[in-house]
TrEMBL record:
Keywords (A to Z) from UniProt: Membrane, Transmembrane, Transmembrane helix
Organism lineage: Bacteria, Pseudomonadati, Pseudomonadota, Alphaproteobacteria, Sphingomonadales
PANTHER family: CARBOXYLIC ACID TRANSPORTER PROTEIN HOMOLOG (PTHR23508:SF10)
A molecular-function term among this protein's GO annotations: carboxylic acid transmembrane transporter activity
This protein's name: MFS transporter
A GO CC term attached to the entry: plasma membrane
Chief location bin: membrane
InterPro entries assigned to the protein according to its UniProt record, in alphabetical order: MFS (IPR011701), MFS_dom (IPR020846), MFS_trans_sf (IPR036259), Sugar_transporter_CS (IPR005829)
Subcellular location: Membrane
Membrane topology, from the record: Multi-pass membrane protein
Top-level taxon: Bacteria
Domain spans labelled Major facilitator superfamily (MFS) profile: 41-453
Length: 454
């Protein structure tokens, strides 16, 4: 069950329903107290999101070397960028919803195996076709992991801090991207771009046994789907977060099926808000993935040396970490939807300045930092917004579909950027074009209504 406030905050009771006499209401998650288990869940998901940031952004950092080595045109490079993003759409739309049926933990582990194997394949690719195929599979894994982690974090975090926790989780993405940028900048010339991809594959492989050992299953999933041994597993997890154990599993509520699957996204008064959420994320993704895919090359176009251009991408991601973390904190006091609008308006201003004003290195890096703060911060506000909109039994599907549909914009953004660059369109016009979608994203987010659950 969940209740929603007019300000956009959400109080979710993920484990049981209060009208079920077989289950004590004291088994609900604490409103504000963090336990070691809850911190471990969020920390593990944060680290996994760092790996996602590494796997996605590493391609933009190695793009100049790859382009020079294989003589790849901007159009072809745009297709390589978009292949991973198309895979992320497929993962979000087709695979992530399975978490509501089979469990968050299983989907995350399966996705990590897929990502490690496909990253290794991309490191030994010998043609653009092989690279496109492997990046598509990497994207499937990432799209699945992102949705499953957001749902799991929303279900384990104390309700008072849920918006912050889901937002903070997303900050792992730019942290991973930032560290990757600095590592690539330091070692690319000596070891080559293939070695960078193989190292990323190794890190994904190392994460698999760690996640197997420390990441728990969703308690909401155990009590609603009731797989074999559900009561014992749920009681162990309830004890680990300081909650009383249950004497028996609650009776399965047949009425919950109306919330499950895609149908649950469009019922209970959520249809209008679901469509607005999809539009907000689609517009956000257009600009976000244009920026993160092309910012090193665009910095070169703006006159920076290649190494400083890689640092521009890394500085952008430092800003992204600050923006993602700050919006989660500020949203504990203010309306998250209005905050997204403010962030996106400031993002449009920063984009316009970056593309139109000739600046020295320090100012260019500072503007890249601000773009990261507002573009990535505003976009990542959509994750806790999506987690607030949907009940636990449809949360994996809701976040997966929101991010999956939004990948339409993620595919369009880098490809459009490649075509504009190939057509020799001026930087002020390019950045002006991509300032429009973030403003539209903010407007759509501000219009979302969070319905009260029955």
């Amino acid at each position: 069950m969940a209740s929603y406030s007019a300000s956009g905050t959400v109080s979710v009771r993920p484990y049981v329903t209060v009208d079920n006499p077989a289950t004590p209401t004291s088994a609900l998650a604490s409103d504000s107290v963090w336990t070691a288990r809850q911190i471990l869940v969020v920390a593990t998901c944060f680290i996994l999101n760092m790996l996602d940031g590494m796997d996605v952004l590493i391609l933009s950092y190695i793009a100049p070397a790859l382009s020079s080595d294989w003589q790849v045109s901007p159009e072809s490079l745009g297709v390589v960028f978009s292949a991973g993003l198309a895979g992320m759409a497929a993962g979000g739309l087709l695979i992530a919803p399975l978490a509501d049926r089979f469990g968050r933990r299983k989907l995350i582990l399966a996705s990590l195996v897929m990502m490690a194997a496909a990253m290794f394949a991309s490191g030994i690719a010998t043609s653009i076709g092989e690279l496109i195929a492997s990046r598509f599979i990497v994207g499937i894994g990432i799209g699945t992991v992102l949705a499953s982690m957001a749902a799991l974090t929303a279900e384990y975090a104390p309700s008072k801090h849920r918006t912050f926790a889901v937002g903070f989780l997303q900050a792992g993405y730019p942290v991973g991207a930032t560290l990757t940028g600095f590592v690539v900048a330091s070692h690319l010339a000596d070891h080559g771009w293939q070695a960078m991809l193989l190292a990323a594959a190794a890190l994904c492989a190392i994460a698999i046994p760690i996640v197997w050992l420390v990441l728990p299953e969703s308690i909401a999933f155990l009590l609603s789907r009731q797989p074999k041994g559900a009561l014992q597993k749920a009681n162990r997890l309830l004890a680990s977060i300081g909650q009383p154990q249950l004497d028996a599993l609650p009776p399965q509520d047949v009425s919950e099926t109306r919330h499950a699957g895609v149908r649950g996204l469009l019922t209970e008064g959520r249809a209008r808000s679901t469509i607005l959420l999809w539009l907000a994320i689609t517009f956000s993704f257009m600009t976000l993935y244009f920026v993160i895919s092309w910012i090193p090359k665009l910095a070169v176009e703006a006159g920076l040396p290649a190494k400083d251009a890689i640092y521009a991408g890394a500085v952008y991601n430092i800003g992204a970490f600050i923006g993602t973390s700050s919006i989660g904190l500020v949203a504990m006091r203010f309306d998250l939807r209005r905050l997204i609008l403010v962030y996106m308006a400031l993002a449009a201003a920063a984009l316009t300045v970056f593309g139109s004003v000739a600046m020295p290195l320090a100012a260019t890096l500072g503007t890249a930092f601000l773009i990261g703060v507002f573009v990535q911060g505003g976009f990542n506000g959509c994750y806790p917004l999506a987690a607030s909109l949907y009940p636990p039994e449809a949360r994996g599907t809701g976040i997966g579909w929101a991010m999956g549909v939004g990948r339409i914009g993620a595919v369009i953004g880098p490809m459009l950027g490649g075509f504009l660059l190939a057509a020799k369109v001026s930087l002020p016009v390019i950045f002006g074009i991509f300032a429009v979608p973030v403003v539209l994203a903010g407007i759509c987010a501000s219009l979302i209504r969070l319905p009260k659950a029955a």
